């Protein structure tokens, strides 16, 4: 029991964020009379906030590397405008346009990464300039709403996986299968990781804490699976996209040399340089990656709207930054996790949906989200001061 308590104490910040998400969900579930967690609303929550989750993953990496990116919202609007013009006005196949959009996002990332990494201009200035440039270009390109997207493209963010396995008492079989595979994969990977750590003689979580944590996560996946399986469409296609992003980037940040270098550069720049880390290359790749994820968010956003508009992506950068900080990223860099950013994005999404169901004015919604962000950063700073003391 002492080992469990010690483990929980070391991870108080991580579990505190998760507990805050659960508390907010229960709070709005009561206030909305059970509407928040209705199956269709859960599916809508994922579809409406997919762009935040995607951008938050890239943003938390940038923040860990001691930078910030203010241009992602404008970039989403700019790329979304290009997508609309190429599909509707030029008649290009949407699959080809998606590839072009990804290429443009990565080129913009190279452009901004060059100024930050090799010209050593602060990322705040470079991306502030990018925010102004790409917002202006968006307004120039998309002077009126570009609608008429093909249904196959619109289904990326609005559609669901086909019910290939049929239904079991009104529950979608495909969704049930995905949930079972997810739980099995969680148990298998975590058990193997623990076994390898024990064999190598590395410190591991106390068995009790390990079982409790995996049990809670498995129960959460099972609950989400049941809700989605009972919804009108089953598993949203965009959830598969977001899930792949989470898995890939969790692996990159936790198991690769590049991920370790990002943490090293953000944690102690001088020590990273002395250790032989190519800081310029790390900074450059962070912004190339942010451009890639911004293009993915643009595809999802344009598909969700079914049209390209000049106001697309407005304040998206603030949602992504807020999600990263609420999810535990440190202002000074070097600290943060992909899973934390996703939890932060879910907190933002639940706040949006809960307040919308309660018909709270949008201005008050912005004020409440601002207070939540301020509180999250304050908790991080106070925790660091206490640790220093």
Automatic annotation (TrEMBL):
Has the keyword Signal been applied to this entry?
no
Q: Which UniProt keywords apply?
A: Cell inner membrane, Cell membrane, Membrane, Sugar transport, Transmembrane, Transmembrane helix, Transport
Q: Write out the annotated subcellular location.
A: Cell membrane
Q: Name one GO molecular function term.
A: transmembrane transporter activity
> For this UniProt entry, which segments traverse the membrane?
12-36, 42-63, 70-88, 94-114, 121-142, 171-189, 210-231, 237-263, 284-303, 342-360
Q: Which InterPro entries match?
A: ABC_transp_permease
Task: Give the membrane topology, semicolon-separated if more than one.
Answer: Multi-pass membrane protein
CDD domains listed in its UniProt record: TM_PBP1_transp_AraH_like (cd06579)
Q: Name one Pfam family in it.
A: BPD_transp_2
Q: Which GO terms describe its cellular component?
A: plasma membrane
Q: Which PANTHER family match?
A: ABC TRANSPORTER PERMEASE PROTEIN YPHD-RELATED-RELATED (PTHR32196), XYLOSE TRANSPORT SYSTEM PERMEASE PROTEIN XYLH (PTHR32196:SF32)
Record's function text: Part of the binding-protein-dependent transport system for D-xylose. Probably responsible for the translocation of the substrate across the membrane.
Alphabetical list of NCBIfam families matching this protein: GguB (NF040906)
Q: What protein name is recorded for this chain?
A: Xylose transport system permease protein XylH
The organism encoding this protein is: Actinomyces marmotae
């Amino acid at each position: 029991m002492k080992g469990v308590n010690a483990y929980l104490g070391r991870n108080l910040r991580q579990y505190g964020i998760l507990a805050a998400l659960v508390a907010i969900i229960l709070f709005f579930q009561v206030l909305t009379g059970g509407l928040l967690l209705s199956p269709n609303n859960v599916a809508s929550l994922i579809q409406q906030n997919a762009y935040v989750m995607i951008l938050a993953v890239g943003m938390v990496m940038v923040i860990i590397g001691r930078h910030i990116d203010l241009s992602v919202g404008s970039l989403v609007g700019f790329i979304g405008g290009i997508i609309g013009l190429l599909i509707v006005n030029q008649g290009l196949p949407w699959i080809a346009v998606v590839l072009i959009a990804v290429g443009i996002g990565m080129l913009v990332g190279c452009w901004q990464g060059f100024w930050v990494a090799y010209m050593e201009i602060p990322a705040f200035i470079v991306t502030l300039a990018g925010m102004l440039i790409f917002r202006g270009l968006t307004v120039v390109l998309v002077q009126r709403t570009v609608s008429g997207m093909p249904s196959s493209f619109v289904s990326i963010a609005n559609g669901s996986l086909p019910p290939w396995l049929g239904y079991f008492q009104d529950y979608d079989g495909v969704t049930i299968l995905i949930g079972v595979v997810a739980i099995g994969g969680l148990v298998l990977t975590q058990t193997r990781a623990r076994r390898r750590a024990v064999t190598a003689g590395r410190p591991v979580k106390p068995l009790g804490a390990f079982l409790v944590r995996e049990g809670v996560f498995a129960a959460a996946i099972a609950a989400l699976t049941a809700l989605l399986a009972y919804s009108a469409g089953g598993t949203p296609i965009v959830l598969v996209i977001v899930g792949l992003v989470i898995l890939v980037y969790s692996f990159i940040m936790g198991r690769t040399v590049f991920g370790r270098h990002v943490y090293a550069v953000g944690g102690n720049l001088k020590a990273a340089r002395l250790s032989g880390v190519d800081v310029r290359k790390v900074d450059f790749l962070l912004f190339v990656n942010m451009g890639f994820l911004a293009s993915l968010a643009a595809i999802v956003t344009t598909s969700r709207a079914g049209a390209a508009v000049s106001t697309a992506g407005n304040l998206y950068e603030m949602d992504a930054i807020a999600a990263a900080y609420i999810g535990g990223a440190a202002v000074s860099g070097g600290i943060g996790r992909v899973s934390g950013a996703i939890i932060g994005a879910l907190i933002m999404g639940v706040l949006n949906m809960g307040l919308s169901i309660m018909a709270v004015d949008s201005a008050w919604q912005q004020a409440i989200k601002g207070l939540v962000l301020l509180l999250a950063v304050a908790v991080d700073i106070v925790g660091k001061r206490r640790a220093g003391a």
